[in-house]
Structure formats: C-alpha cells, structure tokens
Amino acid sequence: MSDTNESNPTVGSESGRALRAKLKRIFTIGGLTAVLLGAGLAIYTHNRVSTDDAQVDGHMAPISARVGGAVSEILVADNQAVKAGDVLVRLDPRDLQAEVAQAQAALDAALADARRARISAQQGRTSDEARAQAMVDAQSAIAEKAEADLARLAPLAARAEISQQQFDAAKAESKVAGSQLAAAKQQLDAVRQDAGSRVAGAEAQDAKVEKAKADLEALKLKLSYCTVTAPVDGIVTRKTVQVGQVLQPGQALMTLVPQQTFVIANFKETQIGKMRPGQKADVDVDMNGHTLEGKVDSIASATGASMSLLPPENATGNFVKVVQRVPVKITFDGHDAEAAGLRPGLNVTVTVYTK
C-alpha cells in the first residue's frame, strides 16, 4: 500500500489540498458566524440595558396608635388582606367618652353664660341709657330756662327794677342747673361705658364658647381614634398588638404591605445615558419566572452610595474608582403585579429598552 502511494505522489497532494480547502471553509464559516453573532449581539444589546440588582418595593404603611388606651378588640390577623377603611383594632373608649361628656357640659355652661351676657348687655343699653338720656334732656331744659330767666332779669337788675337778691337767686339757679346738666351728661357717658363693658363681656363669653366647642371637637376626634382603620388596601404583616394591651400614643401595631408595588433597579452609571422616563421595561421575577411589562417611571437624582447613611469620602487620599449605581423606579400595572404575586423585597431582573 505504501509502495502504491510512493509510486503515485499525485494522490497524496490532492488529499492535502482537499483537507486544506475543507479547513479553510470551516474557519471561514466559523469566522463569519462569529462576526454575525457578535454583530447580532451588539445590535441586540445596543438599545437595551439590563441589571439583576433590582428588588420589588412598595409604600408600606405602618399602623400606630394615635391615642393611648387598652386594646378591646382585634379584627385582623397576620397576612390578611384588608381594604382601605376596614377596622383593624378597637381601643376601650370609656375614658375618652367621659372626657367628651365633660367637654359637652362645659360647652353648655359657656353657652348659658354667653346668653346671659348678651341679654344683660342688650337690656343695659336700652334701659339704663334711655333713663340717662332722659335725665340729660330734662336737665338741659332746666338749664336753658334758668339761662333765659337770668338773661331776662339782667337788664331789670341794671335798672334797679328788681332787687339784687332776686337777680342773685336767678344766677345761682342758672349755675345749679348747669352743674346738674354736666352731672347728667357724665352719668350718660358712664352708662354708655358700662354698656360697652357689658358688650365686651358678652364677646368674651362668646370666645369662651368657641374655645369650648374646639375642645369638644378635639376630644371627639381623639375618641374616633379609638377605632383604628386601614388607610390603604394591603396585607397585614408584623402584627404586634394583643387584646388587653395598654398602648401609648405612637406605639406600632402592625404594618400594611400595599398590593400596588414597583421595582427599584440599580443601574450602572454607564447604563443610564440614554435612559428616559416612559421607556419600556421588562421585569423578570426570580420567584416564579414571570415576566411583566413595565416602564421607567423616574431616575434618581443621586447615586445610591451618596444617599447612604455613611457616604464614601474620596478626599482622604485613598481613592479607588468604582462604578456607581443609580436607582431607577420601574412601574407596571397593579393587577399584573398582584397576579404575579409580587411582594416587597423580591429579586427581579430588569431590562430597559432605551430606543
């Protein structure tokens, strides 16, 4: 066999050329495939950015006691769904009910005092002032008559047609009438001042009535806080309250996890250059593999590191450049999120289409 190959060198050279041609075709096809795959990948990733540093979030509502008191009834359990306005907890209202009754009695007393003050002010103004005015009018008439008599007697006294004693008596009478008129006017002023004081007293009583009304409304509001209701739709979690427990104002009772959730995705700073609110986003849920269609709601105005409790200090001289991440809020239809079973804290992967 070897003798045959040695005797026919043309066959060996043709086999080598065929092998080289075959390898060349393989490498050519492989290279073209790699170029096409690379180009396709570049095109695929050119208008989209993705991150797995993303979690489901929501505006969880902490439920706290607004007034102190003993817990008389709890109407929900952990992981129970509630609607806005549903009663969660009731406190014993008897202490506040007694305070409301006291405030109502104080308001009734203030109303009675104000009514008496208004009547007194009205009566004083109409009766006392009328009498004082009548006295002024009478004394004014007497003074005018005395002055007229004095004016009539003066020329008679000058001609000695009347005695000096008569003229002096007329002068004295005129002087007394003038003094009595001045006293009557002073009395009228005093009556008017007293009426003004009574009006001011009535207004002060009206102010006390308004204060009593405000106190009563404040206590009624506090009484309403004995019934703790859900502010939003959600799921009850972290319930710490027990029947019979005495609560202090502000004490935590439970937390409501909202059914309306969103995603906070932390994209690299190099990925957000073309990102804009309103762009389409796909949210892949790690828990069950569901994919939800959402959109970019907003982009944070600062990096996550700069908003941390202890932001990095790069002025110490030990600087290492690290790619920063910027939080991006992704929203989607609430019904889709509820159907997918999204809960705050779950991991997701977010892809944003930047074109």
Please give a structural write-up.
There is one protein chain. By secondary structure, this protein is an alpha+beta fold. The protein folds into three domains: 47-60 and 258-353, Efflux pump adaptor protein, beta barrel domain (Elongation Factor Tu (Ef-tu), domain 3); 61-93 and 226-257, OB fold (Dihydrolipoamide Acetyltransferase, E2P), CATH 2.40.50; 94-224, Helix Hairpins, CATH 1.10.287. Helices cover 50% and strands 22% of the residues. The protein contains five helices and 14 strands. A six-stranded antiparallel barrel has the order 1-10-13-12-11-14. The chain is elongated. It starts with a helix and ends with a strand. 17% of the residues are buried.
Helices and strands, in order, run as HHEEEEEHHEEEEEEEEHE
Q: Indicate the CATH topology of the largest domain.
A: Helix Hairpins
Number of helices: 5
Cα Rg: 49 Å
What is the CATH architecture annotation of the largest domain? Orthogonal Bundle
Indicate the low-confidence ranges by residue numbers. 1-7
Distance between the termini: 67 Å
Q: Indicate the structural class.
A: alpha+beta
- pLDDT averaged residue by residue: 84
Main sheet attributes: strand count, strand direction, barrel closure: 6 strands, antiparallel, barrel
